[in-house]
């Protein structure tokens, strides 16, 4: 049964129950360019209590280094080793699972975060911001060096990017089709906008082909990496997020308890709905409720 954390006693009991907390970022810690009020104080409280904290985000627009700068700007303590993003997961997948060949490159429909994480792994890239202002001139040139197409959130997506992605996936033998995450929407600056899953939909429909792999939550690769690297006890670990179909499902699939906050895309009605396929163990209005009163 899903329980709402209402009182300080309930919140203290919750914090004492867990040693490790996995956080989504957008809609939990911040809303676009704005910190959710009080969250910085709540995070300080967890650090004071000696909790281990990890940030697990489907946002592929920034590299881990860029996220670190955002945390610093908001006054939230974080280290590079604590940040796991879908862009980082994509780079690790291509490097260590696919063993992506050095004579191939990746075409990106996405933003700087994907490019920077791939290049950090020594993987050659093309597309992304290079094609932000490209004009379609009637055809797409063949490029046999493209061995994978990665699609993530792209706020500058255009026809040329779609045409290139389609052409490479259709014409290049064994070209990998990777989606950083399947989020259809994401919260930002008080509204909800189309996400990476929506950006990928035209290519999926045109090719009549699903991605070979969808990384990011609720896929378990990031959770398995965190557990293996840091030897966490699942029974003492909690996932905190704002989406039922990614964050909460990520925790449920991983066998850990979950907390849904209502500062992002999910409403209280959705949390409590009997028709919801995934329901959290706990929920609250905002994670800022853990800030000292």
Automatic annotation (TrEMBL):
Family annotation (PANTHER family): 4-NITROPHENYLPHOSPHATASE-RELATED, HALOACID DEHALOGENASE-LIKE HYDROLASE DOMAIN-CONTAINING PROTEIN 2
UniProt keyword terms in alphabetical order: Hydrolase, Magnesium, Metal-binding
Cofactor(s) named in the record: Mg(2+)
Active site (UniProt): 24 (nucleophile), 26 (proton donor)
The protein's Enzyme Commission number: 3.1.3.41
Residues reported in the UniProt entry to bind Mg(2+): 24, 26, 242
Organism expressing this protein natively: Lichtheimia corymbifera JMRC:FSU:9682
Chain positions recorded as substrate binding sites: 217
Cellular component, GO annotation: cytoplasm
Reaction(s) the record says it catalyses: 4-nitrophenyl phosphate + H2O = 4-nitrophenol + phosphate + H(+)
Gene Ontology terms describing biological process: carbohydrate metabolic process
Keyword Magnesium attributed: yes
GO molecular function: alkaline phosphatase activity; metal ion binding; phosphoglycolate phosphatase activity; phosphoprotein phosphatase activity
Name recorded for this polypeptide: 4-nitrophenylphosphatase
Tree of life domain: Eukaryota
SUPFAM superfamilies, A to Z: HAD-like
Note describing how the cofactor binds: Divalent metal ions. Mg(2+) is the most effective.
InterPro entries linked: HAD-like_sf, HAD-SF_hydro_IIA, HAD_sf, PGP_euk
